[in-house]
Design a protein that fits this description.
125 residues; mainly alpha; Cytochrome Bc1 Complex, Chain D, domain 2; 6 helices
Length: 125
Amino acid sequence: MRKPAYIITTVSAVAILLGTIALSPTLSAAEKKALSPAEQGKKIAENRKKGNCFSCHSYEGASLAGNIGPPLVAMKARYPDKRKLHDQVADASKANPKTVMPPFGRHEILTPKEIDLIVEWLYTL
């Protein structure tokens, strides 16, 4: 490839990448306050860089949900103690050392506050 074409291709790729990043949805502080804790938790759970729960779990409304993990249904009945559900999301290997679920809390993928918000959302399922 000639140098001018290479430079144009590189500049174009960078421009597209920056445009994509600029258009990616982010929530402002005001928008976060407008959402309920459960709605905030769902956004975190569906965020590919955070929870990404639907890659392994199915739940009502999930698009292209996975089937590696159990379906997320009747969560209040399955986990009447919110602390146990929080601990399960934070580090499932404590209850099941052979789990394939990432330890979101231990590896600091999610903060304790983000896990609390996901638990609030899970309790709506």
